[in-house]
Amino acid sequence: MSKGKTVYIVDGSRTPYLKARGKPGAFTAGDLAVAAGKPLLMRHNFPLEAISEVILGCVMPGPDEANIGRVAALKLGIPQSVPAWTVQRNCASGMQAVDNAFRNISSGLSEIVLAGGVESMSHAPIMYNDKMVNWLSGFMMSKTIPQKLKAVTQLRPAHFKPIIALLKGLSDPIVGLSMGQTAENIAQRFNISRLQMDEFAVQSHQRLAKATDDGLLDEIETIYDNHGHYYDQDDGVRRDSSVKALANLRPVFDRKYGMVTAGNSAQITDGACWLLLASAQAVKKHKLPVLAKITDSEWAGLDPAVMGMGPAHAMPPILQRNNLAVNDIDYWEINEAFATQVLGCRAAWMDEDYCKKELGLDSTLGEIPMDKLNVDGGGVSLGHPVGSSGARIILHIAKTLQRNNASKGIASLCIGGGQGGAMLIEREAE
Length: 430
Prior knowledge:
Elements: E1 7-14, E2 18-19, H1 29-42, E3 53-57, H2 68-75, E4 84-87, H3 93-106, E5 112-120, E6 126-127, H4 130-141, H5 145-153, E7 163-164, H6 165-169, E8 171-172, E9 177-178, H7 179-189, H8 194-213, E10 223-224, E11 230-231, H9 243-246, E12 269-279, H10 280-286, E13 292-301, H11 310-321, E14 331-334, H12 339-349, H13 352-357, H14 379-382, H15 389-403, E15 408-415, E16 419-426
Parallel strand pairs: 3-4, 3-5, 14-15
Antiparallel strand pairs: 1-12, 1-13, 2-12, 5-12, 6-7, 8-9, 10-11, 13-16, 15-16
């Protein structure tokens, strides 16, 4: 994008990512958004009316959370005069919110923006099918008792078959594949083995466990439910994960020939993440700290049948526009929707045929070093609350740069429907 005003990441915070366990979790999406936002706002001494807008990404807000961005803003005590809105770009909804904030501040439309993402996947709705909806409509229109009794006799077992919104959301209606099946396509394209997937998954858990033990995830805010329980860390990590144990899991999406399992896929999870972004003028006026700055962003489209390749398509234009090579990037965050999807993106950049035919490049881009990629774990161990992950990886790459006194990082993720998003984050090394 064209250069405008500098956009700074002032600060950010997130909830722990909480694994869904077969029933609605302790927190709705609105609960999580408020829990992540309150401590963030309380840390900074500027009037809340100085916020230009609030932007929140979310895919499946609850029935009482229409325009959840506005609901969360008001519950956070942000003045009614501050507009708030919600964005949805599937898995990249949180990144889309931050990108909108970035572009609005860069162009001079906004000065301070609270932007992020949230998802309570355990609260995904279960809906009536069309047969039941039509039956209910007829029943409600019945005027007399005989008419209502007749309607009752027309009820059939098929009327009670539910539509599970979560499963629908994790399927692509255009190509007729689940997200897991698109991951299997990537494995076949790049000859990624089950062993490679499982080794990557174990590494994700090991890295998250170490980051937790070493206190490296200070962006997490402790949250409390209504029963006196508290949550202070991501609870999907499996410290005892091993390649041997994962090898015992059966494929989920292609039971006969597949390799993608629950163990090498992202977990169904609840979580929220916010970032506070500001212009240079706002930073100076309100004496705000600076964590990093957003330099560039990019969105790409590709075949939905290999949607996981989105990062491989979204990141090259950023490198080209900023005259950067792979070795110029200090750290990378590629959201782990599936182990094979991240491995496929790495493989694509080392595949001359793919780089030329699919990415329109003259040569290969090179290898993303594993010791610079997802250094504190990712979606396989953390989970992937779809509306939130895009914001989380931006915040964490900024934190990683700060912690290691590094200067450049890229955050990227794939998007159901065949898209990719990426963002270049920079800070001045000390």
